[in-house]
Hints:
Layout: H1 14-29, E1 33-34, E2 40-42, H2 43-50, H3 55-59, E3 62-64, E4 73-75, H4 80-89, E5 97-106, E6 118-127, H5 133-149, E7 156-161, H6 165-182, H7 189-197, H8 208-214, H9 226-241, E8 247-248, E9 260-267, E10 276-282, H10 286-289, E11 298-304, H11 305-315, E12 327-332, H12 338-349, E13 354-357, H13 364-373, E14 378-382, H14 384-389, E15 391-396, E16 402-406, H15 410-415
Parallel strand pairs: 1-5, 7-8, 12-13, 12-14
Antiparallel strand pairs: 2-4, 3-4, 5-6, 6-11, 7-9, 9-10, 10-11, 14-15, 15-16
Helix pairs in contact: 5-9
Residues 78-80, 107, 109, 114-116, 119, 121, 123, 125, 255, 276-281, 300-302, 304, 306-307 line the site of histidyl-adenosine monophosphate.
Amino acid sequence: MLRVKGTHDWIDLTQFNMVVDHAKRYFSLYNFQEIATPLIEPVELFQRSLGAATDVISKEMFLLVPRNHDDQLCLRPEGTASVVRAFIENNIQMTPWKVFTWGPMFRYERPQKGRCRQFHQISMEIIGAQNIAHDAQLIMMLDRYFHEQLKLNNYALVLNFLGCAQDRVQYKERLQKFLQTLGQQALCAQCVDRQHKNILRIFDCKNETCQQLYTKAPHTADFLCTECDQEWVQLKNELEQLSISFAYRPTLVRGLDYYTKTVFEFVSDDLGAQNAFCGGGRYDHLVKELGGKQDQPSLGAAIGIERLLIALEAKQDGVLYGQRAALHLIIPLSTAQKSLALMLADMLRAHNLTVDVMLDGDSLKSMMRQANKMGALYALLLGPEEQEQNSVTIKHMVTGKEERVPQITAAEYLKK
Ligand code: HAM
């Protein structure tokens, strides 16, 4: 039996947990609270928020068929819609509501490097956040998290400004005219389809000829009303003052329909074709669109954990952060010392040391070989003599240094 295509068995979660733990600690400094929402949601939640013509809805949903066929359920493809639903359903009054969550997402995409059918995101949302300085602060938090917390430097921030709903109406008309001047034969079939169904999506086309043509397309940021234009200028100024470098990317529209104004991605060349390891932006109308009493200007972002780990691995030349805690391996030399070994382990763990006991070995030689394989930093040998003297022989597995110490002071010795 094989695992499902595009999914992973996580045999070693050290790095995964490290990025999640760092995020939990660091995001809390910005006053974000951790929440969790269900993995299954009504299909309608995503149809209404992401847009029926997006790839996620039209091609990539994992639909569930419950026995009574009454509910149309799915595995969540992303987290924002669920957080907004939770905000409305739990009648949250306190805004800005700053929350983060992490866990698996599901999209039926063609698997390749950095693209999975079950992947994991750390996502954060700020619901009820009017001023565009929130956007600068969110981007700062992410940039500092990648650069200072995870020591990543092989990445860039790309940024665009989509404007408000009215700006977009005007812009779409201009884009339509631009495409008409190119003529349908100039575009790939998918772009012709998108031109009619969801015109902004043309910019997501992977075809190089189309991309070349779109370098001359009008920019969303050139069709902003006075207020949006001021916000766009404010955002760029704030990022500059915070020393956050970014590249303006006029073709960045992001693949989900709920975005307004700011959109951004953190990208890395080390990722190949799927180069974004984090993406986000503003969604000022989503709360109302999903049934909230009034609009709540909001914003957020999501980090793709699998892609972040690829970028981290590439950058650190195989030296990864957050290595496992040092292993202290107790080796009872015969059955008579096994219960003593369990008691000693119990005592050492009370001092927060990571301890395992080798309960199945035979000869000392083979047990030491096994200790090496397990990556133990110390081997703690308990034979009849040690038992007699209430001592333990501690061997450093790297230096080979060996010392016999009283069991009672073993923790102190190991912590030195
Ligand atoms: P998204 O751009 O669809 O945005 O996904 C965010 C990140 O999740 C991507 O940049 C990527 O790193 C990762 N990701 C997406 N699809 C896959 C996949 N198939 N395999 C591996 N990684 C993947 C959202 O999901 C929005 N909810 C982000 C957001 C939050 N916007 C506002 N608030």
